[in-house]
Amino acid sequence: MTTKSDRLFSALTARGVRYCTCVSGGGIMFLVDAAGRCAGLRTRFFHHEQAAAYAAEAYARAHSEPAVCLVTIGPGVANAVAGAFSCFLNSVPCVFISGAKRSNIVTAYRTQRFTFPQDADTRSLARGTVKQFIELGPTDDVEATVARALHLAASGRPGPVWLSVPLDVQGMAPAADAPACPAPVRRRRRDISGVVGRFLDRVRKPLFMVGRGAEPVMRGTPYRTFLADIGLPFVTSIGSNHTIAAAAANNLGFFGPTGRRAANQVLHEADGLIAIGAGLDIDNTGFDRVRFFSGKAVLAVNADPYLRLGRECADFEKLTVDIRDVDFARLRAATLRRSGRFEPWQAFVAQVSALLPVDWEVRNNLGPDDVDPYLFALELARRLPAQVGLSGGISLDMLAFSHAATLAVGQDFYVSSHCGQLGWDLPAAVGLCDSGLYEHVICITGDGSAMFNLQELATVSSCPQHVTLFILDNGGYNSIRTSQDMHLGGRRVGSDLKYLKFPHWPALASAFDFEFEEIRNNGEIGSKLDRALRPGKRIVRVCVDPERSRTPRLVSRISGGQFQSPGLDDQFPYLSDELAARLAHYRDELARRIAADHAEPGRE
Ligand SMILES: Cc1ncc(C[n+]2csc(CCOP(=O)(O)OP(=O)(O)O)c2C)c(N)n1
Ligand SMILES: [Mg+2]
Predict the structure, then answer these.
(1) Is the pTM above the cut of 0.90?
(2) How far is the CA of 336 from the centre of ligand 1 (A)?
(3) Is domain 366-543 in CATH 3.40.50.720, yes or no?
(4) Choosing a second label site near 251 at 20 to 30 A (CA), which of 49, 234, 277, 585?
């Protein structure tokens, strides 16, 4: 017999959903059964709902299409909320489907805790983590509800939608034959070259800032050709580490408090920011937002209709558009038409790029002991397979890789940039395996983050892809210790080996059928990486000095009870007098050339 659960999954697949992650349960028995039998749907079962949700998120990002996470009533819902929260903050379209008690049993949650085993006020639990909560009632139209859920998830600023399906509704026979699936909505090209062109006409030092919101077009030719050809610099926000080799010195990479120095210097100097899919939140700008926006006009090209900046930015313009609709060929042409105007700026960017290359930064900060995480990241990036999906943790692991890596087409790095939770990386690696886009999946995590969803090593071990898990072992939580050292007189409560216990890594690897490698010092990095990246499943312990913290970074001070944060151009370790003088000289030269252009009639 066909049930409403069958209809629900056929409606999802008819509208393009191809992946469903799940932890099974009695409260979703009809739904699990239907998902398992649904043609065209790939199901993957996990050992924890949080992990199932993170994997769905990673898959949705890899394909830029909604994925489904199916969880049981009550505890399943509670465990999955972390995943909905992650999709919400990272703006990823996913549909969370959970079971619920029979629709004729009512609980007055304001006064009653439960009336049914595992009963939960799912609406309240999910509230604040989803764009919309929908309950499928006994008389509701399944197809219309699914269409609404998917539309909400993927439109505007994308995000998760929660669909709660009572147990009796799951097993009901549908009222009528399934209606024919409507034709997919045709996308409408949006020509934004006029607005961007006018913006370029009024600035002299423009910088494109591309963020995670550009992920749906990042791998496409029009977008990549646009960035490669225009001859103008761009920086990428954390988690949008898409390096375009053809853009050469104009591709300054990852900016921000722990970003690349050249990116931050150029950003500091720019007088016009064109932020494409970049939210301009504190994680991007650093805390001193007045300094960040000072002297800058900002044009935001963004899907979020509610995006706004505070008073700290005096010159702010917004273009609300779905990035997938932007006509990048026209934008490229409009930008190229104006490129002559920016010659002094382009020369400055080339000078800064040459003065502060990534290799120099890495070698300049090398620690003598153990494995330097930045050198490790640089060497790993040089050896990556041509087709590889990488997932990262939230700390030194992700920062070192974002800082040092240069990726080619087919090599994609995913992190949970806005949510920043421990434990996302390993389940995300399963989602990347299941995406079918990569033959090899690499997870780069910290010892702290690795511990959060270790159970999914069992799930990864069943994926056919080659999987390498690099664990940067620095004896616990370096990032927390750094703040404790700075602000709490070095009292390291809860962050070092006095408080935290870790497994015996080789034994852990063997328990889950992984091979084991260990990189103990800088001298070993090359040869051990060559071994670690061979086909198969491997856990690699990377021994990092527990005292090695992130470089370069901003160092804030507390003065008079207030946090004082430097600007992005003032990262620690501070530049030598000689380098600072060279930079100042480039700035003077740039200012002189722009002033000369203004003075010469016809040049402006
Ligand atoms: C779910 C969750 N719990 C706690 C935190 C707070 N937190 C941020 S960084 C960190 C330590 C990370 O340790 P590790 O992954 O080993 O990286 P390291 O700082 O050592 O480089 C913790 C506990 C968090 N971000 N997410
Ligand atoms: Mg650690």
Answers:
(1) yes
(2) 44
(3) no
(4) 585
